[in-house]
Amino acid sequence: MQTLWLPNSLIVKKMAISLLSVDNGKAKECITSALTGLETIEPLVRSVEETPEPISTEVQGTIPSWINGKLLRNGPGKFEFGNTHYNHWFDGMAMLHQFKIANGQVTYMSRFLNSDAYKNNSEKDRIVMSEFGTLAMADPCKNIFQRFLSRFEMMAPTDNASVSFVKYKGDYFVSTETNFMHKVNPNNLETLEKVDWSKFIAVNGATAHPHYDSDGTTYNMGNSYGSKGAQYNIISVPPEKTDAKDTLQGAKILCSIAPRNKSHPSYYHSFAMSENYVVFIEQPIKMDLLKIVTCKLRGKALSDGIYWDPKQDTVFHLVDKQSGEVSSVKYHTKAISTFHQINAFEEDGFLMLDMCCSEDGQAINNYLIQNLRKSGDALDEVYNTMSRVFPRRFVLPLHVNGESPSDQNLNTRPFSAATCVQISKDKVFCQHEDLHGDDLLEYGGLEFPQINYRRCNTRPYRYFYGCGFRHLVGDSLLKMDLKDKTLKVWYQKGFFPSEPAFVPSPDAVEEDDGLILSVVLCPSQDKGAFLLVLDAKNFEELARAYVPVNMAYGFHGTFEASA
């Protein structure tokens, strides 16, 4: 289904693009829009049952016979135990999903991750493990003195790995952002082994968004906290096992970067990678370590220690992947936040950094379950007070030195509106260019970006895909063409698609030869979920595989092609 119209039930109260000022010849846009009549999505953040054995789906349309493999998805699926409830969307217990595609047919299964958090909560029938936005209450079976003393205990990191599926040395793991991952069997979603990053390298966690080099080396980032304060660490994991039971053996810290304020390091969800560099984005979403360390004593959740400081710049740090050398040149831009990067590549002495950005870093605090379950005017108000996320490109000059001209734009790339000006010997100030036209405003911006990763990651590319956000979760699928900044759209009123997964066709010639897979949920229909299959080139719908179960809206996943 391809359309460019908006639902009649949504009344666009105002949509204005005001050209407020011009910096270096580039107009700055101030975008204001407000919507009313948003549909409730409460059923999408409701606890659901697992489906531990594969079940058949009803396929409408035709799934190409060449696609053969599994779409693996991760996200929260349980939001309460007994009379205790989670506060934040990120807190729900991880549920793993598998859509197995073969010969034009699809089966579905799901399982809760058998984490210690899930097992302990289930055994006690209450929340006993604190999560990002929920502080577990003291054991009511303890006496008042024991409950008081428990406030002085350090909060244990959760192993509720609900963010994504990741791959190390050919094995699948599910990950969150603590030091714990779980190795899982992609064939039956069985939880196999709990793995602790800190047993292999000196880090206290790692992101759920690693990057993969063509030789199989995996790169990631993780913080460490010691006597010298916080450090940002670039991690590499070798591609091969030395033993069949290997997990993270051979992992090493490539380099460490000191935060601008060691007691208030930046929060980051992911990072970027080009052919020769890892790019760390130090954004002004800050973590107050004193508040985090004392959150249990203060009776607050960990999220209470995270805040947005718009007075600080966002800084890009470049790290040589081979030597681990951190560039002395720091690339600054105004305060922006980013959760997901699109791609990064080098060309003609520049590094192009493409990512989804917002002018505000407070979105993480808006995704409380009580907000997601609102309706009517209260729901509209939550959405309309949130900043939109748009795809942008920053152009970073790689050969800056003392002889580089100052106070002039170093970006010599034709047809590029981005600017980069050397302020001092080791400081370049960058302004972005938009990777979209005005039509993206109609779809609320773009998040959950995906590319043809195997072919295009760290290389020049033309297309990326994502979800449009005219709601608190994705409500459309978008294909962006960087050649002319146009888009294609799949949209159907009342349906909410997940992060798209691009699957290249086996005889692909063009970059967009393949399929887009997305799990689509319908909150107004009981058991109204389906796997959507689109032709990635023309974005036309090919098929749906209806799943006779209820699902919660998830986060991230991956497609594993069958051999």
Automatic annotation (TrEMBL):
It is an enzyme of class 1 (oxidoreductase). GO terms for biological process: carotene catabolic process; retinal metabolic process. One of its GO terms (molecular function) is beta,beta-carotene-9',10'-cleaving oxygenase activity. Keywords: Dioxygenase, Iron, Lipid metabolism, Metal-binding, Mitochondrion, Oxidoreductase. Its EC number is 1.13.11.71. Binds 1 Fe(2+) ion per subunit. This is Carotenoid-cleaving dioxygenase, mitochondrial. It comes from Cyclopterus lumpus.
